[in-house]
Amino acid sequence: MTRLFIDGSVGTTGLEIRERIAGRTDIELIILDEAQRKQASARRDALNAAEIVILCLPDDAAKEAVSLIDNSTTKVIDASTAHRTAPGWVYGFPEFKAGQYDRILASSRISNPGCYSTGFIALMAPLVAQGLLKADWQYSCNAVSGYSGGGKAMIAAYEDANANDAIDSAWRTYALKLGHKHVPEMQHQAGLGYRPLFTPAVVPTYRGMVVEVPLQVGAAGCASADALRDGLAQHYAGRKLVRVASKAACEGMDWLPVETSAECDCIDLFVFSSDQHDQVRLIATLDNLGKGAGGAAVQTMNLLMGVDEATGLRA
User: Fold this and answer.
1) Pick from 11, 24, 30, 237: CA 20 to 30 A from residue 65's CA?
2) What is the sign, positive or negative, of the torsion defined by CA atoms of 202, 203, 207, 212?
3) What average pLDDT does the segment 276-294 reach?
4) Distance from CA of residue 251 to its chain's centroid?
């Protein structure tokens, strides 16, 4: 059995992870009670007793937790933003580029990707690496998420009708100061020369996410829609948790709801196009709490344990 400690197990991501590992007989879960979770000594003991630690904490708390580990054997999966571009940490998205599975297996420090970032990088990184899109270009990314991605405060705002900031609108944009915390990893992991212009929004549904990159064929060295689709399909061929829609499937669709891939630990990729106007819409749909958070952490944990990567996940 693998000894696992989830630091921050009562938060949204922690609860999602515990749901996915419930009933597994190959995991011994180290659990601290309410009082122990507030004791530095108890947390230190748990962090060092575990073979794998998953951090579901704010950035500063995640950094502190890593500093409490004083052995060379505990492997850390950090679901915060703290280490997603940090030296010495491996990005926990095994499918996004060649060799990433091996890098994860060889590392003891893995950063779990952000939810929006997962959609953007899944679309962009392979196409940039294949030369089907230019790295040195100013891309934009539009995205919308269910409100669970905003954490406890946003969940309360949407679900508590008596809250002072209860939300009654169908859609709202945010990150208006253009400093969303996912942008650095989006640029870095996709291999881009410029920060993408990122415009996220939230809607009153609990989970689900749509991430889109609009393109003009010819601009940015953008290849044809068929070439882009083939590039994605070839890169992700055989992957259990990344699905690329066929041309026929895309041509048969008129709209995509935000819940398209909700309640699932896969990510779905689409290439919509207009030959008449030479325009393309690259779109990813995923569950912000699945492949965008807890599901991704469990996938990485499975790899480190040496079991099938989709164990306990909803494919």
Assistant:
1) 24
2) negative
3) 95
4) 27
* Paired sense of beta strands 209-216 and 140-146, if any: antiparallel
Catalytic residue among 56, 115, 141, 222: 115
**Backbone Cα Rg of the chain:** 20
Tens digit of each residue's pLDDT (9 = 90 or more) over 220-240: 678 899 999 999 999 999 999
What stretches of 217-293 adopt beta strand conformation (E)? Answer: 242-244, 267-274, 279-286
The rounded distance, in Å, linking the Cα atoms of 293 and 213 is: 21
- Could you give the C-alpha distances from 105 to 3, 14, 81, 263, 309, in angstroms and in order? 17, 22, 21, 27, 12
Q: Are 114 and 292 in contact (CB under 8 A)?
A: yes
Strand bridging mode 267-274 / 279-286: antiparallel
Global pTM exceeds 0.90: yes
Nearest to 269 by CA among 292, 244, 252, 246: 244
Instruction: Starting at the earlier edge strand, list the strands of the sheet with 197-203.
Output: 172-173, 197-203, 140-146, 209-216, 279-286, 267-274, 242-244
Most confident range, picked from 38-47, 112-121, 171-180: 112-121
Nearest Cα to Cα of residue 63 among 40, 41, 80 = 80
Query: d(Cα 20, Cα 35) in Å, to the nearest integer?
Result: 25
Which class does domain 2-113+292-305 fall in?
Answer: alpha beta
Question: Could you tell me the two tokens for 224?
Answer: 């044809």
Domain residues of the chain, as ranges?
Answer: 2-113+292-305, 115-288
* CATH class of residue range 115-288: alpha beta
pLDDT at 13 > cutoff 80: yes
